Amino acid sequence: MPKNRRPLRPGRIVILGAGPCGLACADELDRLDHRNWTLLEASPTVGGLASSVVDRAGFTWDLGGHVVFSHFGEFDRLLDELFAPHELLHHNRSSYIRFRDRWVPYPFQQHLHCLPQADAEACLQSLTHACQQREQTLPTGMDFATWLQSQYGSGLVERFFTPYNTKVWATSPEKMSSGWVAERVAPSDLDEILAAFYGIKAPTPRWGPNSTFAFPAQGGTGEIWRRLGARLGNRVRTHARAASISPDARLVRMENGEAVPYDQLVATLPLDQLATMATTAPPTVRQAARRLQHTTVVMVGLGYRAPTLDERSWFYFPEDDVPFYRATNFSKYAPANVPGSDTAAFSSWMTEISVMPGTRVNPRALVEASDAALRRHRLVPGLAELATAHVEIIPYAYPIPTLDRDEALAMTVPWLEDQAIYPRGRFGTWRYEIGNMDHAVKMGIDIARRLATGATEEPLSGQDDAISVGSRS
């Protein structure tokens, strides 16, 4: 991020977007006794990408898979303030990858002994070679495909990493950078893998920070942000869509014609949109922002009149016979996710399909294909009655770490900050590696502290919830 500058007078702070970052920013300003702020949200409700909805049949759905875990004390404190202990349910993660005719425990690379013999031997041989070559100096700035090959070898790359990542990102790994993956990839300890392969020692269980996670007992993930929004009161304005920003005049112009003045502007909306809305942005800034790429995700929620006997959390599907890259056992997260909290009568599965923006989507076809895949892989009983099918299209789901992303950000973000416009959050920073809910909350709190007190924003590192090798939040 650009060098921090302490404003002489914070004045009026306007926040665009009532997702986790924007809400946390507003809450921290109140905590610092800076009450001169307004939060503008275009949607009818708060929560942004972390919202939840209830469909006509009474099933609760998140906008994609979210679980609650944290690297930051500020996020933990917020949960403690908003929820009594009994209002959060706690789980041990149990996740698997579907490979050929079997379920392989996550992380895939640590469980080669679970593969068919020929696949296991091919993966182990190429992984051993890759590990031996790691001692050599690797070129900097390599693409993601080259990085995967150097870390895992051709066996794992061909069987899992390439098909899974292509499916998740709707982009080939050759078109992505590798600078973002360092702390988001499960390690491959060759000695441990060999010990498991030869039956000497089982692999280390439950890698990663989301190996245990929490989930609201009622209301889905969105309940966190509904409660925080309610605490903030009427300075959070919903149905308030910004149309343009005049940096020179320090005005946000709304779709309804209203002009909202500001001294400092915190913007959590997508960076490419933000650069377009800034009326004085030079062509170089707008052109750089247009180079940023993202995925669209179609969430297909399927509710059944049948209990689930499966205790596992979620499943990854790298192969082409399944339309989605992940299926979440959503009724296991919280009984209240099904009508009447009756998990003896109902179950629910949340599936996610990535496409590039602008792709024409056939919701009915995706419902049918997703339902068939869940039954075919025996996650849902073959005769279970489909009680509901709910589809949500998330236009901006995940920012893609393309090869030229960092160059585009270097052209865009400094200019905006020079105009007292501070892009933050998953799509404000456009950095997937700091795109979790806890990262968003931390960013919101830190920019509030910077604007109100002159404190330095703490640098955030990419922590795992790791889409590219097995999970997502």
CATH topology of the largest domain: FAD/NAD(P)-binding domain
The count of domains is 3
Strand content: 15-25%
Low-confidence stretches: 462-473
Let me know the largest β-sheet.
7 strands, mixed
CATH class of the largest domain: Alpha Beta
Structural class determined from secondary elements: alpha/beta
Spatial extent as radius of gyration: 23 Å
Roughly what percent helix?
25-40%
Strand order of the largest sheet: 7-6-15-16-17-14-18
CATH architecture heading of the largest domain: 3-Layer(bba) Sandwich
Number of helices: 13
N- and C-termini, Cα separation: 23 Å
CATH level-four homologous superfamily name of the largest domain = FAD/NAD(P)-binding domain
User: What is the overall pLDDT average?
Assistant: 90
Shape, principal axes of CA atoms: globular
Number of DSSP-assigned strands: 19
